[in-house]
Amino acid sequence: MRKLLILLTIFLLTFGLAACGSGEQTTDKSPSKPAASSKAEEKTKEQPADAEEQPNDSAATSQTEENTAQAQADSKTNSDTQSASTANATTTKTADTKQQVNNNNTPGKTNPAPSNGQTTASPTQPAAPAPESQKPATTVTFSIIGPDNHVILAATKVNFSEGDTVFDVLKQLDKQHSFVVVSRGSGATTYIEGIEGSDFSYFEFDEGPTSGWVFKQNGANLTKSVGVTALKDGDRIEGIYTK
């Protein structure tokens, strides 16, 4: 009897454990369906995401096409601008060439500077003749002595020009100093009658029948009139009143 009870107890325990295991299996199996539903929902959610990505791809494609079209338009605009610039430059160069030809054919006109910034070589101008080297001044030393060694003009250097005569330099001194030369005749007949100043007057025959003015060149009496005696550089001319 006791053994029977033990067996019955074991049977009940075994049956109870089996029932519990079956219930747990049933419980574990039932949630599997919601898991499938969850997967279906995730798949359904993924589909809108893909659907959303597709418009984005379409927008990106449209933007790319717009960028390509804009780049082509810009390229065409730049090409048109370059063509216009080239045409303007060609027109300007042609106009400058015509203007230069017209200026070259017009007497008395100089070529204007081209408007496109390029320099145009002007016709070669004949070189100006080099100035002649200045010749050194030619001078003579002139002195005038009155009677009784009255110094009217001390030895003075005077510039003269080629071809000047003693009379030419004497008249030059006349204007520069305070005395007056009185003469008669001209050229080969030029004769000095007298020289006077503010406080003196010496004329021919004032000191006697042989008195008057005598002129010397380098210490020698002139053999010709003072109006034709030419001067040389460095000459010494003396005018002396003799009695």
Short summary of the structure?
The chain has helices at 2-29, 32-105, 166-176, and strands spanning 138-146, 150-160, 179-184, 191-197, 201-203, 212-217, 220-221, 236-242. By secondary structure, it is of the alpha+beta class.
Can you tell me about this structure?
- There is one protein chain.
- This protein folds into 2 domains: 31-103; 138-242, Beta Complex (Ferric Hydroxamate Uptake Protein, Chain A, domain 1), CATH 2.170.130.30.
- Strand 6 and strand 7 form a beta hairpin.
- The model is unreliable at 24-41 and 43-57 (pLDDT under 50).
- Helices cover 47% and strands 21% of the residues.
- The chain starts with a helix and ends with a strand.
- The protein is an alpha+beta fold and 243 residues long.
- It is rod-shaped.
Write the layout of secondary structure elements.
Blueprint: H1 2-29, H2 32-105, E1 138-146, E2 150-160, H3 166-176, E3 179-184, E4 191-197, E5 201-203, E6 212-217, E7 220-221, E8 236-242
Parallel strand pairs: 1-8
Antiparallel strand pairs: 1-2, 3-4, 4-5, 6-7, 6-8
Provide tags for this entry.
243 residues; Ferric Hydroxamate Uptake Protein, Chain A, domain 1; three-stranded antiparallel beta sheet; rod-shaped; single chain; alpha+beta
User: What strand order characterises the main sheet?
Assistant: 2-1-8-6-7
Beta fraction = 15-25%
CATH class membership of the largest domain: Mainly Beta
Order of helices and strands: HHEEHEEEEEE
> Could you tell me the radius of gyration in angstroms?
68 Å
CATH architectural grouping of the largest domain: Beta Complex
